[in-house]
């Protein structure tokens, strides 16, 4: 598979093929799931259209017979019949509207759920290039555009298609001569639709892309509001967003202008043809070649046909716009993850032992194949062993965790847990064997209890509180306005860095996995809390395989083994005292940190 695409910034040079109405095809299965509702809507639509087409017949009879002196009593019957037809039309139209609109809502709800589910299955390589704000725009703006296609737009299109076919048929029945003249002008209306549809689709897609970029800019900057204000970047950011919003407006204006021109031309051509035919019909009435009722009937059918054709021009523009949105959604659904479960996944052994093997590992990030992070790296972590990995920035420490969690697959070599190759296992089962405490903990806009139970949704309140207590978090959580039920705000902005870190540690403790991964897990804690959390971690690490990534060497002194990495290779390994005695890279890093700390204390 090729590198994950940058979903929202494709060049428009091949938009003609991607933005064709074929883009709606991947969306059709979601409509087919609701075939019963769609069928009922079509029945109601057919009844409403038939009732509409009956009205001119009643009008003709009323004009030709109801107004005659010798048929004076018939006028009541015609008006009663008209009321009956209108009643059927009203009920059928209301039923059709309800069924079609709820069908659109249902289809889009299913589609949004499917797209989001697909996004959760895509691996980090996809998100290395895609922007979350733009993806959110696809889930909202694009699906809303599609909703109108399967809802109001579909209803209008089908209704007018029924009316157009019925009106043309009854026009021919009423007056073949005049109908021939009307039908002769239909190509003049249809051909502009066909040839201008591509331009409308291209401009609609450009408008959607520009709007998505503006949404991405807003999402990115609002999520970093404190940094924006700290650096006094409000004015520059406002200017950037204003420019993006203006660009979105310009693109939408161009798309709307194209659709307005298309609609206006269609309505003018359709109505002008009716006016011309009406002029000819009036002369036929004066010459006695047709009755006034027949002309009225023909006129009503011609107006129905012209109105239907005019509305179909509007609908065509909306469908063209929806095709662009559907193309974007289809691109997301067509993107396949690099990391997938094999057809017959191999089960991990039970009970778990926690052995980790990196065998002849070579790896480069997708999109940067010429910059290898590792080359033929091998080492083993025994079950229950506490191993720390240290080294300068860029040595590859965090990348090891990425491969162990199987966020990426190696270019060559293997990562094994308890003898099972990562590529032979189901990724979900594989990751259930590990609990991660990242360097930058992620806190969701939910309650503190929900955040702790994120990896264990069935945990009891007692288990949640026990995990929080072990992570030295229970005290400050109970002090919150609503205790553990307090909502923490987006990204946990109401908490300090140390509090967020302890919450992440509680989450990992509650997961109770056989392998514990700590990526700078105590980096945001002060000395007192670091001691409390380290004591809790020492307890949690018992009988678990633990892999610790650390820059602060004070956190790895008690490790069973320390691996020193540099340039993607292990250059030293051993215990703290042994490595200091060797006077290598580890000893140099230790002197830099511990001497700096001593000097800071001396000058304090």
UniProtKB/TrEMBL annotation:
A Gene Ontology molecular function term of the record: ATP binding
Location of the protein in the cell: Cell membrane
Keyword Transmembrane helix: yes
Family from the record: Belongs to the ABC transporter superfamily.
Transmembrane segments: 38-58, 78-99, 150-172, 178-195, 260-282
Name of the protein: ATP-binding cassette, subfamily B
Sequence ranges assigned to domain ABC transporter in this UniProt record: 356-592
Gene Ontology BP annotations: oligopeptide export from mitochondrion
Membrane topology: Multi-pass membrane protein
Main location: membrane
GO cellular component: plasma membrane
Keyword Nucleotide-binding: yes
Function in brief: Part of an ABC transporter complex. Transmembrane domains (TMD) form a pore in the inner membrane and the ATP-binding domain (NBD) is responsible for energy generation.
SUPFAM superfamilies in the cross-refs: ABC transporter transmembrane region, P-loop containing nucleoside triphosphate hydrolases
InterPro entries associated with the record: AAA+_ATPase (IPR003593), ABC1_TM_dom (IPR011527), ABC1_TM_sf (IPR036640), ABC_MsbA_ATP-bd (IPR011918), ABC_transporter-like_ATP-bd (IPR003439), ABC_transporter-like_CS (IPR017871), P-loop_NTPase (IPR027417), Type_1_exporter (IPR039421)
Start and end residues of each ABC transmembrane type-1 domain: 40-321
Keywords: ATP-binding, Membrane, Nucleotide-binding, Transmembrane, Transmembrane helix
Domain of life (superkingdom): Bacteria
